[in-house]
Amino acid sequence: MTSLSGSDARDKELAAQYEAYPYPERNPSDEAKRLLIGSPSHLREIDYWVFGARRSTSTPLRALVAGCGTGDGAIMLATHMARAERPGEVVCVDRSEHALNIAKARAQVRELTNIRFIQASLMDIESLELGLFDYIDCCGVLHHLPDPRAALSGLVRVLAPDGGMGLMVYAPYGRTGVYMVQEALEILTPFSEAPATRLDVAKRVMQNLPATAWLRQNGNFGDHLNGGDAGLYDLLLNPRDRAYDIPAFLQLLDDAGLEASCLMEPARYNPALFLPNPKLRARIEELPWQEQARVAEALTGNMATHVAYVVRKDKRVAPPSGDDTSAVPIMREIPGIELAKQIRIDGTLPFAFGTLTVPIALPPQIRSILPLIDGERTVGELADIMAETGMSKGKFFRIWREAFAILESLNRVLLKPPA
């Protein structure tokens, strides 16, 4: 996960942690039952948010997963590429032998031939001479490193000129309670003790955690608290764990010569969605998007992570207009017919931003359009089909323009890149 080069005591403990309790805890046999889906590194998201739905799917995609852990993002991306018959490869780098062995076993169950594994530190990535990558995943890693800025800058140096990254870092407000317990545990069981000893102490503390502890009120960590020994250890005993609020995260990107092409999901960072008061919305609309994101993070209080797709400064590729008649809309994951069923009779879509559910207003007629999205029909063809039902082209495009902007911001409907 982090570098052994120039490591300090905390870094050595971190290395010991991931050898003893690789995170997240995964059983390779489960690959025969399901594919774990998430962000970043979903192929359709990369196509859209990094390459603006303009990069041909016939162009090989070289992807680096920097700090792959037990392989969730790497397995998802390699599987998506294999299913879509997309050329390219996924190169996974991690310093933990135990974690890599789990990721390798998962890939073997899926019979993936487009993925390879290298045991090394991402801080030494340039010395590996792997060439340049079109896409780099660094998810849940930077916030554990001794020098996140240096690590990110090193990754930029192996990024192709027109490439992009998918990043995830911890965020402070949604982790309320975590750092309090971490502080107590570092006193009760210093990070210099053996991982098994520290885990035993943490379990005993959690069994006796006072009812007033802020962690008890935080509903963000079911996956950690129910994720076995590895989940509990990673949440409460990690020897180096920092969080970035939006200004700090954007500054980290800026220092590395990067900018966000998308904060995931974009709507999550729009405070107007949960501040329906007209006067407040008027104030919000006057703010730059960075300030809107700050307001959203501060008021919701439940953002435990920030996920972003990033590109070099001034290199963002704008996707085609959503109402371009030749554009091909595609559902990110949930089929259109299923998403349509979730829309209430009042035209709102209940959407969960973590532990916060917000009713998102949509044009009611979008219910009839969503089931038609199959990843093959163009926007123009959708308009033709709806015209046969009596919806004029003018009305279709008014509805589609409004609905696509909303569903794109929810990361539910994107555009397909050319073949």
Automatic annotation (TrEMBL):
Sample GO molecular function, one term: methyltransferase activity
Pfam families tied to this protein: Methyltransf_12
Family annotation (InterPro entries): Methyltransf_12, SAM-dependent_MTases_sf
Superkingdom assignment: Bacteria
UniProt keywords, alphabetically: Methyltransferase, Transferase
GO biological process: methylation
Protein name (record): Methyltransferase
Organism: Kozakia baliensis
